[in-house]
């Protein structure tokens, strides 16, 4: 059973991050944007069963839950705590290779994508995770890099402005012609 160690606010006022005493996963990230996507995942399905939950993102000792902005956090937290406490740590988990990059990106031989992915893994994703979210690279078409924010970052105003600008600045060091768009 997962023990909640702390509950932290994120830069997104509609998302909270639960810090657990023991890991739920061993490095495998899970990201769900609706109840249908969460089908088959016991924890995410239980969290989506709580009214107002619109996103569930978790990895290791962190679970981020995003609400639709219509609930009062003090009341919502009381409803979210039981399914989190009842969650079992994964004993055998399959890695979701699609969580950080699309199959198109995984199959690409474009050296720019390989360098961008490495840079994101080292310089961006750890900071997004600290704020309760992540980033998926969807593809590079001509000079347009499509990314999708996950977890708390998905509906955060800071992600779609400041963070996106910072990512684009880093990517331009790899190729000055690349433009980054969030979808």
From TrEMBL:
<dbReference type="InterPro" id="IPR034904">
    <property type="entry name" value="FSCA_dom_sf"/>
</dbReference>
<comment type="similarity">
    <text>Belongs to the NifU family.</text>
</comment>
<feature type="compositionally biased region" description="Basic and acidic residues">
    <location>
        <begin position="89"/>
        <end position="103"/>
    </location>
</feature>
<feature type="domain" description="Scaffold protein Nfu/NifU N-terminal">
    <location>
        <begin position="5"/>
        <end position="91"/>
    </location>
</feature>
<dbReference type="Pfam" id="PF08712">
    <property type="entry name" value="Nfu_N"/>
</dbReference>
<dbReference type="InterPro" id="IPR001075">
    <property type="entry name" value="NIF_FeS_clus_asmbl_NifU_C"/>
</dbReference>
<dbReference type="Pfam" id="PF01106">
    <property type="entry name" value="NifU"/>
</dbReference>
<dbReference type="InterPro" id="IPR014824">
    <property type="entry name" value="Nfu/NifU_N"/>
</dbReference>
<protein>
    <submittedName>
        <fullName>NifU family protein</fullName>
    </submittedName>
</protein>
<dbReference type="InterPro" id="IPR036498">
    <property type="entry name" value="Nfu/NifU_N_sf"/>
</dbReference>
<feature type="region of interest" description="Disordered">
    <location>
        <begin position="89"/>
        <end position="108"/>
    </location>
</feature>
